[in-house]
Design goal:
CATH topology: OB fold (Dihydrolipoamide Acetyltransferase, E2P)
Number of helices: 4
CATH superfamily: RNA polymerase II/Efflux pump adaptor protein, barrel-sandwich hybrid domain
Largest sheet: 6 strands, antiparallel
CATH architecture: Beta Barrel
Strand content: 25-35%
Strand order of the largest sheet: 1-2-3-9-8-5
């Protein structure tokens, strides 16, 4: 299983890549594997400012629907619209082209509460 060391992780299985004051967020390969074949991604919060741990969208797989939980506070700047026509990209490339949203970080100190690669591996038993 691929778990990139340069990313931060939430206990809800989102990954966070920080570039300046913008965070790119997606779901981990582990989460995608647990969900199964992803058939739909919905994010209707673009342009909104949300708090840490708020629901910013959902991912629908063949067997279940799962909420997407924002791991840090911020404004949803952009939704990856490629996922509208190719939601299964999350199963194929969770850390690459299948990012879900970009967020303008409101409180950088919240990044300290995220897990590093070793803590995330411990969480999932990898």
């Amino acid at each position: 299983m691929n778990i990139p060391a340069e990313l931060k992780y939430s206990k809800d299985h989102e990954w966070v890549k920080v570039e300046g004051d913008v965070a790119t967020i997606g779901i981990t390969e582990f989460a995608a594997g647990e969900l199964g074949d992803i058939v739909y991604v919905e994010v209707e919060t673009e342009g909104e400012t949300l708090d840490k741990d708020e629901v910013f969208g959902s991912v629908e797989a063949v067997k279940t629907v799962s909420d997407l939980i924002l791991p840090i506070s911020g404004e949803i700047l952009e939704f990856n619209e490629e996922l509208e026509s190719e939601p299964e990209a999350i199963n194929k490339d969770a850390y690459g082209k299948a990012w879900i949203v970009k967020v303008k970080i409101s409180d950088a100190s919240e990044l300290d509460s995220l897990l590093d690669v070793d803590a995330y591996k411990a969480l999932i038993g990898a």
